[in-house]
């Protein structure tokens, strides 16, 4: 049992780590866990719905300060801030999952084929990936969002638009990493030994190359997740995100709270902003520590203790 | 004799993911000035760690205990400025790989001067003059001109000379040479050993020579320290150690060193159509834009008869590996003709060659990288069976895999282990099992033992000979080591810069070599016997001077 646990990426990393690196990893994991749990249990935790404007005692009222029935106050539109922040977590998690799932499969498959086969196909794909890199990612996401949603907004429509536009930016990243690994592994002796055995290209790609190329994926996965949150918030902030009636979204709330800031209403902007910072920080901490731990040169280890010298008889197998 | 280094009860422990590992355990030894002390042992014996601890080069994860007196000063636990002062002045280091121990973006003169100026006694002009002087002393021709050249403009042996010049320039009491000739060809090795001998004789420098090669030890060392699993098992003068080794481990180590024996029995070559026939084989690698290609193999002709082992010997860059890869279909040939099992490799396409692969086994040089790290040994060995449809999956292939593992003398249970859980020798045996899975008629073994320790090498060679007798496959055995090739081959071919210079039965090629290159190659091979080696050294010197005239 412990053997299986030791092979799981994150569990293994926690065990390996010491000192500051362990602190970073555990903090990151804790923040991320709170983030994910909030998303799952949002319907239970949140006092009101994300688009709720009134309860049994009438409308909430706009820009109420924190306290009383609304722990974190209400927004200019009359929504409950706490509920919006909690429901926003759910949107963020769904977008991350959809975006990363979409990009990871396409990116890995393209990277593998491009790296292994090489030639003109490789060149064309690399040029396309480079071209996508050259665009500012947010601009690209905006264009994709408009194209996908057609300006209309629904819950899934908005989420898919956000997720797919993020996917568009991420595929080149996965493509790049997997392609680089594939090119390296392609010249390893075990791939050549598979070739001289007579294995076909698909078998070599899946059995020998892909399985050895996925080591860095958990790292990009985490780093991309935090980037996905930022892109989603950015889209929302610029008004290309999800309407408040479809789902709660931090970037949209931040946008609407712009005018509040100058008039001393701090709670409408502070909490969604804090939610973005904390979730990105948590995931980034996990990613960075995974990166450090995966590299033996960056990983710190416990100092060896010099044991009391035990003179044991020398064994020689002639 | 003044004592330069005095190590007392040295202990070094490394912190790893798998817990603390003691690398050096209670080691005591001394080195006097003008003395060459060789520390020998197999990989993991702690020989390098012992030497590196003298100049504080161990990684942060290491904890050192004990006393190391370098010129009467304890250097254990020295840090910062004090450690820096001892490095270079008291002890200098020569590393294994000369091509990576020089910085490629600076001229060698700059790098030589850097060491001098780090210890702050020279003006720019003085440092340059001294650098030229020492380049000349280590035998670099035209040092005034060569000082402004970059490392890539020097050959491997010359680079190692430059590294030695860097070490000598500060006039240290001690030079630590960590496998100084392992990365070099055997003819170059002889030259570097000569140079180290001159360091001792002319400069009075003490040398700690770390090596696994008993021939090198016999050639250079005054005294030998044998290490095994972090401990010193035997210390004696070279003549005494080679003459009458006391410890069983030393005896085993000496017995395992392959020796040339031209009286060994060989199987006669069968009268049948050959398995491989190369006629004027040419292999070229495409050159960079606008430049001609590099001709790695130049009009080479040879044959391999069924059941015959052809040993292919040559130094690095001689094209021996390229020929092996061409027969295995990994490298395209550019001209001439290469027939492998009746298929012409010049025109063959991958689709047409695939069925032929069933009859070809391949053993790679580095057993550490020739297995997919994520598959078990059984799955790796089953691969050829699955690919060629002899078994549906790894479970169905398991009985055959077990048989194969048994044939290469590995316990069946090893099938469930992962490659990294096996030692180098065990992995190379598993590699043989995989190559033999389809009972090939031809086996290509590319330096199968050069990454292994001598004692392991001896066992793998023995196994190879046994398997060859049992299965009767023809083989191309590629190696840089004449003695290794001699132990397994029925016929030997010598390659030099892409050309086949000599070919014939071992008794002829090694007993009475005709080509001057073969003669030099043979004479450069150090033998593990100080007295005999001294004689051979003189022969080699006579041979080289004759060659220059």
Euclidean distance between termini CA atoms of chain A: 38 Å
Q: Write down the CATH class of the domain at 64-281 in chain A.
A: Mainly Alpha
Rg of Cα set of chain B: 25 Å
Name the CATH class of the largest domain in chain B.
Alpha Beta
Tertiary shape of chain A: globular
For CATH, the homologous superfamily of the domain at 64-281 in chain A is named as: MetI-like
> Can you list the strand order of the major beta sheet of chain A?
1-2
Low-pLDDT segments of chain B: none
Largest sheet of chain B: 6 strands, mixed
Strand order of the largest sheet of chain B: 6-7-8-3-9-10
Biggest interface pair, counts: A-B, 31 and 47 residues
**Overall mean pLDDT of chain A:** 80
Shape of chain B: globular
What's the architecture of the largest domain in chain B, going by CATH? 3-Layer(aba) Sandwich
Brief summary:
By secondary structure, chain A is an all-alpha fold. Chain A has helices at residues 2-7, 9-16, 19-40, 42-45, 81-117, 119-134, 137-149, 155-186, 189-197, 201-213, 217-237, 250-256, 258-262, 267-294, and strands at 54-55, 58-59.
Write a structural description.
The complex is a heterodimer of chains A (318) and B (549). Chain A is mostly helical. Chain A has a domain at 64-281: MetI-like (MetI-like fold, Orthogonal Bundle). Chain A has 14 helices and two strands. Chain A has helices at residues 2-7, 9-16, 19-40, 42-45, 81-117, 119-134, 137-149, 155-186, 189-197, 201-213, 217-237, 250-256, 258-262, 267-294, and strands at residues 54-55, 58-59. In chain A, strands 1-2 form a two-stranded antiparallel ribbon. In chain A, strand 1 (54-55) and strand 2 form a beta hairpin. The longest helix of chain A has 37 residues, at 81-117. Chain A is globular. With 549 residues, chain B is an alpha/beta fold. Chain B has two domains: 3-210, Rossmann fold; 276-542, P-loop containing nucleotide triphosphate hydrolases (Rossmann fold, 3-Layer(aba) Sandwich), CATH 3.40.50. Chain B is built from 20 helices and 20 strands. Chain B has helices at 47-54, 80-86, 108-118, 124-137, 143-146, 156-169, 186-203, 214-220, 238-243, 248-256, 320-327, 350-357, 377-387, 394-407, 424-436, 454-471, 482-488, 506-511, 516-524, 530-548, and strands at residues 3-16, 19-32, 36-40, 62-70, 73-74, 91-94, 174-178, 206-211, 223-228, 231-237, 276-285, 294-304, 309-313, 335-340, 343-344, 360-363, 442-446, 474-479, 491-496, 499-504. In chain B, a hairpin with an 8-residue loop joins strand 11 (276-285) and strand 12. In chain B, helix 3 (108-118) packs across helix 4 (124-137) and helix 15 (424-436) runs parallel beside helix 16. The longest helix of chain B is centred in the last third of the chain and has 19 residues, at 530-548. At the A-B interface, helix 9 and helix 10 of A face strand 1, strand 2, strand 4, helix 10 and helix 13 of B.
